[in-house]
Design goal:
mainly alpha
């Protein structure tokens, strides 16, 4: 079996479609991108501009936090996992 380079190993830890944090991260990132696109197309003014901008930035920040948590949750080594759980993670 071929060894995976170190940088690619870090990225493969993030791609976990069955992990709830992965799904939430995708939702927040898609929402922030959609809001930014809507802001660009609609060009709202006044308070609506500020509200939509803050919501888009909040979604982007939440996506980054979830990305960091996903990266930290999957950084556990084999000695920290439980063999009785089907996913092998610690409770």
């Amino acid at each position: 079996m071929h060894a995976i380079p170190n940088g690619l190993t870090r990225l493969t830890r993030l791609w976990q479609p069955r992990h709830p944090l992965f799904r939430l991260m995708l939702v927040f990132n898609v929402l922030s991108s959609g809001m930014a696109w809507a802001l660009h197309l609609a060009r709202p003014e006044g308070a609506l501009l500020w509200i939509l901008t803050l919501l888009a930035l909040g979604n982007a920040g939440a996506g980054m936090v979830l990305l960091w948590r996903l990266w930290q949750d999957t950084a556990t080594g084999p000695e920290e996992t439980e063999p009785d759980r089907p996913d092998g993670r610690a409770p």
